[in-house]
Amino acid sequence: MSAATAISHNKPTEPHKSWKKINEERKALKRQRKQDKALKDLKRVQELAASAVNETENGKAASKPNPSTVSIAVPGSILENAQSAELRAYVAGQIARAACIFRVNEVIVFDDVGVTTARETKRIYEQDDADNNGNGAGKATSTVRSSSLQLARILQYLECPQYLRKYFFPLHKDLKYSGLLNPLDTPHHLRQQSKFRYREGVVCDKQAKEGHSYANVGLLNDVLIDKALEPGVRVTVKMEPSSDGSRKQRGTLVSPDEPRRETGVYWGYQVRIAHSLSEIFTKSPYDGGYDVMVGTSDRGTSVQNVPNQSIGYNHALIVFGGLQGLEEALANDEKLTVDDPQLLFDHYINVLPKQGSRTIRTEEALLIAMAALQEKLQPQQADVECDLSDLLPRSEDTGIPMARDVLVSKKKKKKLVDNTESNEIQPAVIATKLSPTPAVPRRPNPFNEHKRAEVAPQSISMEADFEVVSASTGHTAAVNENQNDDLSRFD
Ligand SMILES: C[S@@+](CC[C@H](N)C(=O)[O-])C[C@H]1O[C@@H](n2cnc3c(N)ncnc32)[C@H](O)[C@@H]1O
Question: From start to end residue, where is composition biased (Polar residues) (predicted)?
Answer without folding.
Answer: 1-10
